[in-house]
Every structure is written in structure tokens, then in C-alpha cells.
Amino acid sequence: MLVAQGNLSNTYEALGRFEDSLRLRQEVYTGYLKFAGVEHPPTLRAGNNYAIHLLELQRFKEAKRVLRKVTPVAQRVLGTENDITLSLREDLSRATLDGESSAEEKREALRVLEDVAGVRRRVLGPAHPDTLYGQRQLERYRRRFPRK
């Protein structure tokens, strides 16, 4: 049922029904939490999918709240080089684009994006699509928040 709801959420998103899609993503994440617990990899992936959708809708504060819960669990359970963990860390950094994040949060976000890009280069190789995506995210962040 949760997989079907996730697929339906994707369909809603493709149709431009973003609020319906978000509602389902939240239900999927909550369902996995109840069904399998917070440490289950599909729960962590569902949390990431929910947070990504929040980011896409520029609901940065809500995304940060979800990501700050899920990311440490993923690091502990899956390890720091797991694709879910890397994505969560990257998304938490993206959430600092809200205009309300402190300078310290932005510095930490840049450090995390640099670390994630380095891990992906080392583990996946420089030409892997996830490595290239992470590098683009890092470059965008550097352009938006240049070091002073």
C-alpha cells in the first residue's frame, strides 16, 4: 500500500497537483514510521522523499525539521557513505537556502556539500550521475553564498 501511495504521489506531482503529492508523501513517511520504525531504510528513504518535496515547494523550515530527525539516524544505521545518508545530508544543506538560516548554518551547509561531493567522487567516481548532481549543487551553493 505504501509503495502504491508513493507511486500515486509521483503521478500527482507530474500532473502539477503538488499539495496532493505532498500529502501522500507525508502519509507514506508516517506509514513507514508506524510499520517499520525509524531505522528501517525504506522509512529513511520515504523521509528523504518527503523532505525533497518540501524543498521543492520552498517549505524550508518544515524540510529542516524532517531532515534534522532523519539524517542522524541514517548516519548511524546506514553509515556516512550510503546513498540515502548522502542525499539527506545534501538536502539538509539545500534547506539553508531559506533566507532565515544563520551564517553559521550556511558555512556548515557548504562544508557538508563539499564533503558529500568528495565522498561521491571517491565512492562512485567522477562521472557518476549522483556525483555530477552533487557537484552542481555545490557549485550553485557557492555562487549563491560566496565565501567571505
In short:
The protein has 148 residues and is an all-alpha fold.
Task: Tell me what the structure shows.
It is a single chain. The protein is 79% helix and 0% strand. The protein has seven helices and no strands. It has one domain (2-144): Serine Threonine Protein Phosphatase 5, Tetratricopeptide repeat. It has helices at 2-14, 18-36, 41-56, 60-78, 83-94, 103-124, 129-144. The longest helix has 22 residues, at 103-124. With 148 residues, it is mainly α. The termini are far apart. The mean pLDDT is 93. The chain is globular.
Please describe the topology of this protein.
Layout: H1 2-14, H2 18-36, H3 41-56, H4 60-78, H5 83-94, H6 103-124, H7 129-144
Helix pairs in contact: 1-2, 2-3, 3-4, 3-5, 4-5, 5-6, 6-7
Query: What is the CATH homologous superfamily assignment?
Result: Tetratricopeptide repeat domain
Number of helices: 7
CATH secondary-structure class: Mainly Alpha
How many domains make up the 3D coordinates?
A: 1
- Provide the CATH topology: Serine Threonine Protein Phosphatase 5, Tetratricopeptide repeat
What is the straight-line distance between the termini? 50 Å
What general outline do the C-alpha atoms trace? globular
The CATH architecture name reads: Alpha Horseshoe
Major beta-sheet overview: none
State the share of residues found in helices, binned by percent: over 70%
SSE ordering: HHHHHHH
